[in-house]
Amino acid sequence: MVGRFEMTKHSSQLGDYKHYLDLRFTMARLFHLTILTLLLAVAAGSLSAQQPAAGNRNDRSATIQEQIAARQTTSKLPKNVAAILQTIPDDTVIGLVVLDDQGKVVYQHNSRRELPAASSIKSILLLELFNRYAEELDRQPRDDIAAIVQNRKHPAIAHFPETRQQELDDQLSGVSIRQLGLILIDSKDRSGKPYSNLVYNAAANVAIALLGGPAAATAQMQQRHDAFQGAHLRRYMLARRNVTGDNTATPLALATLFQTTVNKTPPDLKAQTVKEVTDILHARDYPNGARLYAKGGTLYSDPVTQVRSGQFSNGQMTMNYAIMASQKLRSKTSGKQQHETLKRLTLDLYTGLQNPK
């Protein structure tokens, strides 16, 4: 009896102990499952924060592609240039690109973003103007130019002060297409005598008018090259920027102009015509043999704008570049001061791209 009782008691204790082990095992499983659930929830929340809250699969794919493009843009910038971009204020947008001699992107940041172009878009305009009048670049006087300049109601001229009309007549009415191109690109003549800002921009307006106006000129520019789809003339120079829209371009469009024309001939253009254009865009030869072709742009109104574009070559490297800066006007009187800041900023970026580290 004793043995039986003791055996029964022992069996009962073993059963209780087994139940105790089963309970601990179950509780441990529940604990691990809870932790795993929490980790999965945190991961899902992090992932959803990186994806669109709503939308179809294409929307999500587009967002992913934008993220990939952003990472590629960052990786393509030299460290010294990336460091400068880290200092840019929130009210400032920078776009830049460097193309090699074959048109391959070397560095980029917002290279396909349209930004205010100011006068830098005149380089593409000049190409179309000289192509249209390739066989008569030096004919003068020209009745078509005089008719635009002397018509106070023409949209190319109407917004200029009537008190400056005589200056426009004297400087522009008798010029050839070649002379018109020289004036619209360079605010100084070959002797170094400066043209007024009014005449400099009125010359561009005459060119736009000869091509049929901003919309028609844009259509002609854009058919020249796929990259020029990012260039838009929406107004005449010095007209208000907020009425019909601003003149804009992508850094890629501006850099491509130089990459495809300097010492090259694009399809459907005559070699001599292209040479006439690049001769005007030729800005400087350096003592060490380096050469610069360039066209910039400046605007003090909102948004304040500074653009540098061109081709720099020194025998060892060729850099087709565009650096565009746009900054919200902070006060009615701060435009020139802000422009000076952007001018220094774009020069620092230009120097950094020339000497990547």
List the topology elements.
Layout: H1 2-50, H2 57-75, H3 79-85, E1 92-99, E2 105-109, E3 115-116, H4 122-132, H5 143-149, H6 165-172, H7 177-185, H8 197-210, H9 214-222, E4 231-232, E5 248-249, H10 251-261, H11 271-281, E6 282-285, E7 291-299, E8 304-313, E9 318-327, H12 335-354
Antiparallel strand pairs: 1-2, 1-9, 3-5, 4-5, 6-7, 7-8, 8-9
Helix pairs in contact: 4-7, 4-8, 4-9, 4-11, 5-8, 6-8, 7-8, 7-11
Describe the structure.
This protein is of the alpha+beta class. The chain has two domains: 1-49; 78-354, DD-peptidase/beta-lactamase superfamily (Beta-lactamase, 3-Layer(aba) Sandwich). Helices cover 49% and strands 15% of the residues. It is built from twelve helices and nine strands. The protein has helices at residues 2-50, 57-75, 79-85, 122-132, 143-149, 165-172, 177-185, 197-210, 214-222, 251-261, 271-281, 335-354, and strands spanning 92-99, 105-109, 115-116, 231-232, 248-249, 282-285, 291-299, 304-313, 318-327. The strands form two sheets. The chain has a six-stranded antiparallel beta sheet, with helices on both faces. A three-stranded antiparallel beta sheet has the order 3-5-4. Helix 5 (143-149) crosses helix 8 (197-210). It is globular. The model is unreliable at 1-26 and 33-75 (pLDDT under 50).
